[in-house]
Amino acid sequence: MTAPATVAWIVGATSGVGRASALALAGPDRHLVLSGRRESLLGQLADEVTGQGGDATVLALDATDGAAVDAAAMRISAERGDVGELLFSAGLNVRDRSWADLKMGEFDAIVDTNLNAVARAISLVLPGMRSRGAGRVVVISSWAGWTYGRGAGVAYSASKTALKALTESLNDQEGPHGISACLLCPGDIDTPLIDNRPVVPDQAQRERMLTPDDVARAVAFVFGLPRHACVNELVISPIESPSYGR
Q1: What's the maximum distance between 2 C-alpha atoms anywhere in the chain?
Q2: Mind listing the pLDDT tens digit for each residue in 175-207?
Q3: In this predicted structure, what is the pLDDT of residue 134?
Q4: Is 156 noted as a catalytic residue in this protein?
Q5: Superfamily of domain covering 6-236
Q6: Which residues lie below 8 Å from residue 122, measured CB to CB, with a gap of 6+?
Q7: Could you tell me if 93 and 110 are in contact, meaning their C-beta atoms sit under 8 angstroms apart?
Q8: Would you call 8 helix, strand, or coil by DSSP?
Q9: CA 152 to each of CA 21, 93, 109, 182, 201: distance values in angstroms, whole numbers, following the listed order
Q10: Looking at 88, 146, 156, 223, which residue is catalytic?
Q11: In angstroms, what CA-CA distances link 7 with 40, 157, 218?
């Protein structure tokens, strides 16, 4: 009897690493649930996944909208079963990043996206993972979540650094239930998020950065490991100029 496809929920699938990871994970052994804010782009991605022989459902949402995320998790469980793999790739940063320019409204929005929304998504899939006795979570953090990154910003650095405690506590407490988490910390990636930097990198600088596909290959590696293996933390950077990240 063929094993049922693993339900893999990708939050932040619209662009960048999330989008590239969906294509890297596409195949008959997974059903991908693609979430992000732009439904039309998610639909295009779902078509590409199908074209590669995969299967996908689109659930558009804002990762910081708790009610929408709760509803999405309930719908996935009802229609597809328990989530076996969760990739959280949504992220936010702003142009004004220093203490001198700090706006608490922006601080709250960054922490809500980069930390609170991650905790919510994980908490929603944990019961199903526990009942299955298996599950894997990959959280896209940043070089700034691995070590202090000058220029990453107060809110971004704080939120990304906190993800280390989030994933370590998950491994510590849920490992006995067959659940593992990986904190994936990339250096500079050429994604739309870097357009929010105080000084936007030029084309020559972008060409020296990681691509979303580079990081997606790391995501696929982690999800492809045997159940008993856990990559607690994975750092990947451009060979020329590792920096403070996304």
Answers
A1: 62
A2: 999 999 999 999 998 877 777 777 777 888 888
A3: 97
A4: yes
A5: NAD(P)-binding Rossmann-like Domain (3.40.50.720)
A6: 86, 88, 137, 166, 170, 181
A7: yes
A8: strand
A9: 24, 8, 15, 21, 14
A10: 156
A11: 22, 31, 19
